[in-house]
Amino acid sequence: MSQLIMVIDDEAGVRDLLGDALKLAGFETITASDAMIAQTLLRDTKPDLLIVDINMPMMDGFEFIERIRSNGDNTPALMLSARGDRADITRGLTLGADDYVTKPFGLEELVLRIKAILRRSQFSVETPTSLSCGPISLDSDSHQVRFHDDVVDLSPTEFRLLHVLLESKGRVLSKTYLLDEVWGITFESESTVVDTYISYLRKKLHRDGFEGIRTVRGVGFQLQAEKK
Fold first, then answer.
1. Is the pTM of this model over 0.70?
2. Is 16 helix (H, G, I), strand (E, B) or coil?
3. What does DSSP say about strands 213-216 and 28-32: parallel, antiparallel, or unpaired?
4. Sheet containing 136-139: which strands, arranged edge to edge?
5. Under a CB-based contact definition with an 8 Å cutoff, are residues 226 and 213 in contact?
6. Tens of pLDDT along 179-204?
7. DSSP, residue by residue, 99-151
8. How many helices (H) and strands (E) in the chain?
9. Buried-state track 77-97, b at ≥16 Cβ within 10 A, e below 16
10. Whole-angstrom distance, CA of residue 114 vs CA of residue 47
């Protein structure tokens, strides 16, 4: 069964271009000319991925991603923008986007990025694994995380980040390594997106005296069973 991609862009030419390219790549598509229409479509449609333009009337792409994430919609999302400012890229990823592509873009590269996002979002099905560290346990097969017996609700990005930390528990992982492993993106300069998602995990997993996600200043992050 073909995967469904929703294209949200106020430019008809871009919607048509992406729709044709995605169909040639084997995807089904559905389009929306603005974020308000997209929100309505999401009530009855469950796409596998969203392509979201940033500069749209009424509600821009940033606000759209923020709204659907706050409502518990964790559909993978790729943002499009004519702006390539690092602050915009960091903002999009921090709000919950999985990738950020600047215009003009090559269709072949865009399709490759889409496939990479879809692979990352489905890795738990392909590699069923149980991992644990102290009171934290992660089951990739059921895509579930527990703190002792309590189920912890994580977004797909938070889940991937925790999975990488658990796989290498005890090791100090650099921000560059985490950006590549979790987001599949190589940054040319420092980004705060890793720090932001580490803080999200700490808010959900640091409890009952457990503080296992440690910052190693100037190096990166380490997951350990007990605070030292």
1. no
2. helix
3. unpaired
4. 130-133, 136-139, 144-147, 150-152
5. no
6. 888 877 655 545 688 888 999 999 99
7. EEEESS--HHHHHHHHHHHHHHHTHHHHS--EEEETTEEEETTTTEEEETTEE
8. 9, 12
9. bbbbbeeeeeebbbbbbbbbb
10. 13
